[in-house]
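hiii, so i know i said id send this last week but things got crazy w the move. better late than never?? heres the sequnce for the chain we talked about at the cafe, plus the structure i predicted for it. fair warning i was half asleep when i ran it
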Amino acid sequence: MAEGVDDPKEAITRRASRLLDQVEAREGLGTLPVDLDLVASFAGIARVNDIPGLAVVAHIRPTDDKQRSLIVERRAEDPHGRRRFSLGHEIGHTLFPDFWTDPRACRPTSDDPLAANSEDAVEGLCDQAAAELLLPARLVRPFMRDRELGMDMVLELAGVSESSLFASGRRLVDLSDRPAAFAVFTPRLSKAQVRLVEQIRRQPSLPGFAEQEEPQPRFRLDYSHGSPDMVFLPREKSFSADPFTRALGSGEVEHARDEVNLHGRTHSFEISVLHAPLRIEGEIRDRYLATVIPA
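okay and structure toks below
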C-alpha cells in the first residue's frame, strides 16, 4: 500500500482520502456532513454501537462469529460531534497495514511509512485520519472560499459538518493558505505567579507595612495548533483581556488586534474569541477558543 511518501501523517491522510474515493465512486460522497456510517461500512465495520458508561472514548474489535467483521463501540454520553470524531479515529485504525493481522495491536512493524514506535504515535495518526474522513479537504476547501478565517468560520463549519469546535478549528488551520493558529485559553496565573502567591500568603502581616498585592489571573494559552508557517506560541503566554471579557459578556465571537512580545520581538495578531466553558465531572471550567492570525 505504497504512497510514495515517507511522512506518516501524509501517508495516513492519503489512505483516508483513498477510502473516500471508494465511497464517492460507489455511493457518492455528497456534501458536508460526511456519512461516516457509510464510510465505516467501506472499511469493513459492520456495526457502530453507543454504549452507556463505556470505560474508554471508543474502541474497535472483531465480532465473535465466523464472519469476523468489525464493531466500533463508542461512549454514549459523549456529544454527537465527539462521537463522530471517535468513529473516524477507529476507522483510521483499519488503514494500518498490520491491522487485519492483529486488530488489537495496530502497530505496524514493517518498513511501511506508517510504522510507529509507540502507541501514542499510532493514536495521533488515527486522529489525522479522522480529520480527513470527518472534514475532507475536498469538501472543506470549497467551504473556505469567500469566508474569512476566524471563530465565526469555525462555528459555521462545526455546524454543517456535525463536528466539534476543536476538530473544526484544527482542520481550518491545517487547510489555511495563510499562517494561523487555533488556540485554547484559560484565565489563570503563571507558574511563577502561583509560587509568588504562596510566598505572599506565608508571610506574616507586619504592623505599619502595606501587604503585598497578589497578582491577578490573565488569559493564558493552554494549547495551540498552528499551521507550519505560523510563529510558535509558547504555552502560558498571556494575551490582552479585552476580547475575552467581551466574549464572556456577549456569548458571541469577539474580535481584537493584539500586540504580543514573542521571542524578543513584538508581533501583531488578529484574534477572534469564543467563550466555550467546559464541563468536567459536573464542574464548569472557564475556557476560551480562539483563532490567532498574524496581522
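btw Confidence is low (pLDDT under 50) at residues 104-117. thought thatd interest u
miss u guys!!
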